[in-house]
Automatic annotation (TrEMBL):
UniProt record similarity statement: Belongs to the TonB-dependent receptor family.
SUPFAM superfamilies assigned: Porins (SSF56935)
Lineage top rank: taxon: Bacteria
Source species: Acinetobacter larvae
UniProt-recorded name of the protein: TonB-dependent receptor
Any one cellular-component term (Gene Ontology): cell outer membrane
Pfam families with a match to the protein in the record: Plug, TonB_dep_Rec_b-barrel
The UniProt record lists the keyword Ribosomal protein: no
Keywords, in A-Z order: Cell outer membrane, Ion transport, Membrane, Receptor, Signal, TonB box, Transmembrane, Transmembrane beta strand, Transport
Amino acid sequence: MSYKSNTLYQALLLLTPFSAAWAVEQLPTIHMTANNMTANRTVLNDQNTMAGLTVIDREQIERQQFQTLEELLKTVPSLSFRNSGGMGKTTGISLRGTSSQSVLVLVDGQKIASATTGTVAFEHLPIDQIERVEIIRGPRSSLYGAEAIAGVIQIFTRQAGHADGMKPYASVSYGSHESYKGNIGVNLRQGASWANLNATAIKTQGINATRPTAWGHDPDRDGYESSAFALKAGHQFSDQFEISSNLLSVDAKNEYDNGPDAHGNIKQNVYGLAAKYKPVDRWQSELKVGRTEDKLESVEYGTKSKIDTLRDNISWLNSLTLQPNQLLMLGIDYQHDKVNSSTNYTQNKRDNTGYFVQYLAGFGAVNVQAAFRFDDNQQYGQHSTGNATLGYHLNDHYHAYATWGKAFRMPTFNELYWPADPVFGGGGNPDLKPEQAENLEIGLKGSQYLDWQLNAFMNNIDHMIVGWPAQNVDKARVKGIELVLGQNLHQWVWNLNYTYQDPKNRSGAYKNKQVVYTAKQLLNFSADYKIDKWLIGGAVHYEDKRFVNAANTQQLSDFTTADVRVTYQLTPTMSVQAKLANMFDKTYQSTADYNQDGRTAWLTLRYAMQ
């Protein structure tokens, strides 16, 4: 047995049953048969969703003791991460062998990617303020427009429960590297009105983010601190009309290596207002207005620079029930992007308007979904996308589907308009075209005895944007399979997912080379066992090797990490939790020249009024 296989085997042994004779108490079910609203921009049962789907809710977040959003996301099939030195440091993702810019990320329906880089600062989104995360794998540009080449991640902030009254909750945590976390919130509901208020604070001394080979290396600890506030509220005036609003505001400071006292001051804000109106039984209309702000002030060698991006979004969705088994959706999305920076971009704003139509139907055992979207962008002109899906219920427990779809990614402001350096050259290219993708996928899912999914996909990407100055030169093809298993059996709950993918360049000097920073194999396993007032669990995470350059001459080694965790229910409203992450103290890199946490421990005290 190879060392790699032996390490994985030893880690899996940690998660075997402790004793079948212990008291039996039912655990919450795995949420593979709940509802989601991201796959089709309307509420749909997970089992009827014809796409690769993962839903992680508040119960799972607390049970698995995720300390960051990154920890949550890396358990998702086909998703790997890149982190630049620990908590609060720049974090990127790869979904189905693509880049971070190819994944659309929403917070309560609002796009939050930076207009300048096209990436999302996952590291600043507080896990304690998240109610649920829905991840759809596969293209969704025909519904959402640009960015959704590989999939969509939608993050829902916490909201009030269904019972009337005031339900406060709180948690405090202490962890390795002098790390502190605190969270306090309250659920409020009275009749047709509801609200959730939530505040979080985080501080850590951190680790030495860089290795000696890194540019600007400084052998010190790079700390991080942040505070966040969230508010979500709504009122239902009648069966026909309701309104809701949401706010998420984050302030953070991140230390990094690039001169003495180099650090970034970050502000992220997400605002939203929505109104739903149902004039007749067959027609529901929803209007959403939102704004996202991403502000970064960098301080290096005593000099400050700033990049502020703003995105305004307006969406109008109309759902028409043609028959009890047929739904027609019509929608308009407007987006305005603006950049305010100490760097002089040749263009600093642009508008995009998208129009889409979607048809959903069920005819006996057959399900049909089709969508078409037309986008008109101020910078690159007009672009059309579409998708079509056919599903078939083999019986009450098994469901098969096949889907085809097109998607695209529009160039970022940096790729288009960043000014060329007078010495080093480079800069943006205003003549760039959008990246384009075409995806084929077949899937099979079941819910008898255990919940499972098996998906096979192929994604062809053209006009890939690479180089500096950026050019449309490369093509890539990603082929892969995903296996997802999960079961709730008496006092046990467990889930496993495995991905094999082959992301290859298809053109140029690096034809048939593996796409940079993509792993061919990914595996996650998690299990929990309930014993009276105790909940004992653990997890294993494996990522294959990845290359850091297009020629595939430099690589990062594969790695396996294992975690153990325990929860003890002190009272019906209070629990204490402990977690040991990376328990074998594995040394690894997810980004070249940057360190990752070794063995870390967390202790949490949690309170929630029932």
